[in-house]
Amino acid sequence: TGSKYKSVILSFSKQDDGSFLLTSKVSSGLE
């Protein structure tokens, strides 16, 4: 408890033209 954490989620989303877009979702819990 009281610990700080950071979650980083990287995902590749395939686009309509067949290319891949790297989407980065960062969720930080610093309550």
Could you write a compact summary of the structure shown?
The protein has 31 residues and is mostly beta strands.
Please describe what this structure looks like:
It comes from Streptococcus pyogenes. This is DUF4190 domain-containing protein. The chain is mainly β and 31 residues long. The chain is built from no helices and two strands. It has a two-stranded antiparallel sheet. A hairpin with a 5-residue loop joins β1 and β2. It starts with a strand and ends with a strand.
Features:
mainly beta, two-stranded antiparallel ribbon, rod-shaped
Instruction: Kindly state the number of beta strands.
Output: 2
* Main β sheet profile: 2 strands, antiparallel
Helical stretch count?
0
Provide the succession of SSEs: EE
Structural class: mainly beta
Distance, first to last CA: 11 Å
> What spatial order of strands do you see in the largest sheet?
1-2
Q: Helical amount among residues, as a percent range?
A: under 10%
How are the SSEs placed, and which strands pair?
Blueprint: E1 5-14, E2 20-29
Antiparallel strand pairs: 1-2
